[in-house]
Amino acid sequence: MSLAPWLDACPIVAILRGVRPEEVEPIAAALLAEGLNILEVPLNSPNPLESIRRLHGAFGERALIGAGTVTTEDEVAAITRAGAKLMVTPHADPALVLAARARGLIACPGFFTPSEAFSLLAAGADALKLFPAEAASPAVLRALLAVLPKGTAVLPVGGVGAETIPAWKAVGAAGFGVGSSLYKPGDSAEAVTAKARALRLSLGAA
């Protein structure tokens, strides 16, 4: 399993922080209708494993279902059982990358420094999450990509939205994790549709 085909189809990871199980399917359906097919449920959301189970059951063939804010190996096991295929962490922990890869998950761990990036890649990370991106800049990403192995997929996450995506894309970001600019707790499917369209326009894909 690879992240690359999903990013090629649409490089936005929809971070549904705070989503509730009873609303996750209509929100996901709205995102998929707009071409956003990488869906992440952070584990600090209400009953996240149930949301992941519902997403897997309803959309597992059409979407890449992920879990975010993963911080322990027990959580890696739990998200796998729930049907997640993508693990996202907020921090640089090679042990979690190894645990995810051992279970067949795509691993996209968080990092902020070159040292962290290289240690995660050595553990087998499929992609890297530059977090918090608002504390860095596109210039920082350009410098990182100059020294990381060619083809390393780096996704800025944190403060990323329609206004900032073009600058990150211009320096080589492989994708973008988008949270509050796309979904906030309580948003309707219609509101998410409008935000998703704005994000696609920012990519140059109406």
UniProtKB/TrEMBL annotation:
Keywords: Carbohydrate metabolism, Lyase. Gene3D superfamilies: Aldolase class I. The keyword Repeat does not apply. The keyword tRNA-binding does not apply. CDD domains: KDPG_aldolase (cd00452). InterPro entries: Aldlse_KDPG_KHG, Aldolase_TIM. Pfam families: Aldolase. Pathway: Carbohydrate acid metabolism. Belongs to the KHG/KDPG aldolase family. Homotrimer. NCBIfam families: PRK09140.1. This is 2-dehydro-3-deoxy-6-phosphogalactonate aldolase. It comes from Roseomonas alba.
